[in-house]
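note to self — DONT lose this again. spent like an hour looking for the file last time. sequence + predicted structure for the chain T wanted, 219 res
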Amino acid sequence: MGLDYHSHTNTAIDTLLKKNMDQEIEDIQQKLEVHDEILLAALQLFAKNGYFNTSLIDIKDAAGINTIGIIHKQFKTKQAIAAKLYENIHNSLSHSVDEIKLKNENSSEQLRAIVDLFFKLTEDAPDVMRFLLITKVSEFIPEAQALCDSAAVKKIIRIIDEGISTGEIRSMSSQLAYAHFFGIIENTLRLKLTGFLDKKAEFYQAQAWLAAWNAIVKK
């Protein structure tokens, strides 16, 4: 009788613990989903209307959230949302550069793959690229790291350094080579994102690549 009692008790406790654990996992998943919905809504609104013309109420409505209190639990302020967006975009870009370096051997191949990524993002995720290339983040996140100081750009400059070392890229300051190369790429993408260039991004991709590569290649 005692053994049965303890067996039933342990089973009941195990069941209760499992239910609690399942509920905790579900709560975490819901919080993550809300977290991502807030970020996505904010990104779209910042890109369309600008940071200062977007309110927390706008973000709440766009994310389909019932109260602003839910946003405050996740981020506290609009600036915190923008800072998290900026951090996520830069981290994702840095990770993508790492993957590109693993998959491509030469500096020219790596730079070409990075350009391909930028043009693909411009077409498939224009809000991300607007936030990265057009939005003046320093106006509302003073402590934000400048794009030129980001981990991704530092990795790209190392790729250029390697290209200079192997003779693919002409001997010059790697920072200057970056400015020459990505100045062409980024300006092309800005013109596309602002509507000055009206065709799909891929239409300009090959020409932009050739112009950028010819600016730094060792001839």
